[in-house]
């Protein structure tokens, strides 16, 4: 028997629910991906670049043209001027960027603060580096940060804090005041930040995304991570980027070059071309997804689910305690998928220790209007 390095890791709930949705023919509002395609101009560009012979290794740190476009976008949206040679690295997916950042920083015995509920890739990456996660809970229903609890969780061994705003699964967003509070907490300590901002463009109701890239003090000790998969509706492309000050980028690249070496070449060409031609794409995204959120929420308002429209991401959390108060959320998710034809994700899987009375499921509304209407109709019958 091999002694597993990750004994507690099995098949993720995302794989399980998507498989079950496919087997049962349920509408798949579980895993976070759109059921529509990316912009035609972007798709068309990939084919063109493949045929034009852009098929060999890209530079390790990413295609210059793509890093340039990322730099321009960041300057436009967040006002930070980056050195694209030293501060931007293109990675095969945000997940790989997260993994490399953690491996670059965390040593055996180090502690990493994560906020529950949290995205599932953080903890295994920390474990593989020899560190361990200290879980600080966010409190439903708002899932707001409790900075006093963060203060209490910090020890001399704390090496890294992992932020995720807009937040998967709750959709909560951090404010500039949150970032100031965090800066004050870690000011005199040797603590770094990983800011997972893959949903940076999915912030609703006129709010601005409070990026760590806007915060001078925090940025100097941060890896900021984003995903073209989320931004361009092409999650299967697994292409993302990491922005970090030169010394941190240098360490990240040492890992990245031995995990994958580089991202996929023709995808990078296509993304660079699309970003240059369509800078409006990212500014139109909040409106695009807010419309979907509003449609789904308006329809769901006729159901017995309770919810507050999400502030960010393409996920909507819903409380089903008025429907099946005693049913644990994993069973509820299976029941909704098998019996009601709508697949979702139970929120407890995002916790180390879920609250006993948690009665929340997560729906992904990155779906066509007809899918959302049909799903809501089914949910209203429950
Ligand atoms: C919070 C969060 N971070 C990272 C990722 C992964 O992004 P990518 O597909 O680019 O690896 C996801 C995808 O669901 C996510 O929700």
Automatic annotation (TrEMBL):
<keyword id="KW-0663">Pyridoxal phosphate</keyword>
<keyword id="KW-0032">Aminotransferase</keyword>
<feature type="domain" description="Aminotransferase class I/classII large">
    <location>
        <begin position="27"/>
        <end position="379"/>
    </location>
</feature>
<dbReference type="GO" id="GO:0030170">
    <property type="term" value="F:pyridoxal phosphate binding"/>
</dbReference>
<dbReference type="InterPro" id="IPR051326">
    <property type="entry name" value="Kynurenine-oxoglutarate_AT"/>
</dbReference>
<keyword id="KW-0808">Transferase</keyword>
<dbReference type="Pfam" id="PF00155">
    <property type="entry name" value="Aminotran_1_2"/>
</dbReference>
<dbReference type="InterPro" id="IPR015422">
    <property type="entry name" value="PyrdxlP-dep_Trfase_small"/>
</dbReference>
<dbReference type="InterPro" id="IPR015421">
    <property type="entry name" value="PyrdxlP-dep_Trfase_major"/>
</dbReference>
<dbReference type="GO" id="GO:0005737">
    <property type="term" value="C:cytoplasm"/>
</dbReference>
<comment type="similarity">
    <text>Belongs to the class-I pyridoxal-phosphate-dependent aminotransferase family.</text>
</comment>
<dbReference type="GO" id="GO:0016212">
    <property type="term" value="F:kynurenine-oxoglutarate transaminase activity"/>
</dbReference>
<dbReference type="InterPro" id="IPR015424">
    <property type="entry name" value="PyrdxlP-dep_Trfase"/>
</dbReference>
<protein>
    <submittedName>
        <fullName>Methionine aminotransferase</fullName>
    </submittedName>
</protein>
<dbReference type="InterPro" id="IPR004839">
    <property type="entry name" value="Aminotransferase_I/II_large"/>
</dbReference>
